[in-house]
From TrEMBL:
It comes from the Bacteria. Belongs to the AB hydrolase superfamily. GO terms for molecular function: hydrolase activity. The keyword Hydrolase applies. This is Alpha/beta hydrolase. Keywords: Hydrolase. It comes from Dactylosporangium roseum.
Length: 383
């Protein structure tokens, strides 16, 4: 090998600039959910120019998108060349994950972003041929002012072989997460415990992100979904839990307050009753909210943020667990502290003092502990 060939690596200046993001790229160890590996990150970020590290600029995220798209395309070609079902499945999972990281903070070209989201879905569904994950698709019919709401019911072979109705957890996306990536990775902890997982995409979530404005009162969608699942023979309708991450955690709090009697428990990972002031958010998050809410670049979104703020009201008719980072600059922890007092006896707040939004450095431990907590509350009651 020639002496002038440099090793493939993540440049130090890149790691300094966005090391906070690396736990998000890895997220959770997964069996079914697509995920990237360190080598993928090194391949995507090797040679990233030091002068292009303004994370508030469109130029940074465009360069980021091009690099991750190239990595995803490599995996897609590897899938085409693979001579085995297992090889194709693994390569397609790599492609799906890389396409997600290509699009997740890219907002300049909405058509391109939607195309990348579609590629995530297609690659993930193609990967299922090499797994034993059961995925049954369903839809809530469209209602006035609301499109159809698709959902997936996920089960394992052991759960399907049991031949009896199952407890289930409904999971809700964050603002920029993908159903096939982060939400599925969270679901795996429940599948391992014999709990079916329902992954739904309300208006403005999943493939509807950027096509339909995010539905602010998502508890209305959840109420319809719970009623729909009551007729699902594979689900035990009185053994349901709800969990959401990031903005999905905010949705979880709304669900707890409005629909608590329909769930044994509710989990909030990193959401809160109120968002930080819009003007105080970094550019990438402002662009994220504008895209999700279908707002023009000049629109003042603070009134929408004010509309979203949740008045805790009386304690909910269920148990609620919130996991939060003390340094969260999206959903300030003070709002959750106030909610914890208002919901005393029904709400447990766990704050990680050195963590920011969604406490990603400790996500492996807190998802394990939380899944155990949920499993205990979903046990069949005597009589």
């Amino acid at each position: 090998m020639a002496d002038d060939v440099a090793r493939l690596r993540v440049p130090e200046h890149v790691y300094r600039a966005l090391g906070y993001l690396f736990p998000r790229l890895f997220f959770l160890n997964a069996r079914y959910a697509p995920q990237v590996h360190w080598g993928d990150i090194a391949a995507a970020l090797d040679g990233f120019p030091a002068e292009d590290l303004d994370l508030s600029s469109a130029a940074f995220w465009n360069d980021w998108r091009e690099r991750w798209t190239a990595r995803a395309d490599d995996y897609a070609r590897l899938a085409e060349r693979s001579s085995t079902v297992a090889g194709r499945s693994r390569a397609l999972r790599g492609a799906a994950a890389a396409y997600h990281w290509a699009e997740f903070q890219y907002f300049d070209d909405h058509v391109r972003k939607r195309h990348l989201r579609r590629r995530i879905r297609d690659c993930f569904l193609g990967s299922l041929n090499g797994t034993d994950l059961g995925l049954a698709e369903g839809r809530l019919p469209a209602r006035a002012g609301r499109p159809e709401v698709p959902y997936w019911l996920l089960t394992t072979p052991a759960m399907r072989a049991a031949g009896r109705p199952l407890p289930a957890v409904l999971l809700s996306n964050g603002l920029d997460s993908a159903t096939e990536i982060e939400l599925l990775a969270l679901a795996e902890a429940y599948l391992e415990r014999g709990i079916a997982a329902v992954l739904f995409e309300g208006p403005g979530q999943g493939l509807q992100l950027g096509r339909s404005p995010l539905h602010l009162a998502m508890e209305e969608v959840v109420a319809d979904l719970v009623a729909h699942l009551a007729a699902e023979p594979g689900i035990e309708a009185d053994r349901l839990a709800f969990a959401g991450i990031s903005f999905g955690g905010h949705i979880a709090l709304r669900v707890a307050g409005a629909l608590g009697e329909r769930f044994r428990c509710v989990v909030n990972f990193g959401g809160g009753p109120a968002l930080n002031k819009f003007d105080g958010l970094p550019r990438r998050l402002k662009a994220n909210f504008r895209f999700a809410l279908g707002a023009d670049v000049a629109a003042d979104l603070q009134p929408r943020f004010d509309e979203l703020a949740l008045d805790p009201g009386r304690p909910p008719a269920t148990e609620v667990l919130s996991i939060h980072g003390a340094l969260d600059d999206i959903f300030p922890v003070e709002g959750l502290t106030d909610l914890d007092r208002a919901w005393s006896g029904r709400h447990r707040l766990v704050v990680h003092p050195r963590e920011a939004h969604t406490s990603l450095n400790v996500i492996n431990s807190y998802t394990l502990e939380t899944a155990d907590w949920v499993a205990g509350r979903l046990e069949r009651r005597p009589g």
